[in-house]
Amino acid sequence: MRECVDCGFPLEAMELSACPKCDHDLGPRRVVELGILEVDIAHAGETWEQAKDKIDRAFDDAIYYRHAGLKIIHGYGSRTGISVIGPRARSYMRHLVEKTEGARFASDRHTEGASIIWLNR
Questions:
Q1: Within the chain, what is the greatest distance between any pair of CA atoms?
Q2: Within 10 A of 89 (CB to CB), how many other CB atoms are there?
Q3: Distance from C-alpha of 57 to C-alpha of 111, rounded to nearest angstrom
């Protein structure tokens, strides 16, 4: 189950913008059309380790709550021209797909700064 990063309060499957216990901002995490969980991992100054942790938590949540897919917004290096998190995120997402039966990896057809893991739920 997803927990608040500040206080550890368990968060339900509903879409929340802040923790009901400590009012911590839960960040850019939302459920979009077709039951896809969408998480931005690269636009709040994350290191690769922090971004990887976000992917892991989101992947677990997407499976647990039976989402059709997980969309990771990883960026494409528009400020610098060099993406640091994007290539690592895509590679790590492919790794997760390889070890998950029925899952498949796809690039987002609308932007090069996002990728999707389809979970066939």
A1: 40
A2: 24
A3: 23
For residue 39, the Cα-to-chain-centroid distance in whole angstroms is 4
Quickly list H helices, the chain.
48-64, 85-98
Going by C-alpha positions, the residue among 6, 32, 7 that lies closest to residue 15 is 32
> What are the structure tokens assigned to 28, written together?
């850019």
DSSP assignment, residue 80? T
Structure tokens at 74: 């990883």
Instruction: Give the model confidence (pLDDT) of 36-85 as tens digits.
Output: 899 999 888 899 999 999 999 999 999 988 899 999 999 887 666 677 89
Q: Enter the pTM of the model.
A: 0.70
CB atoms within 10 A of CB 37: 23
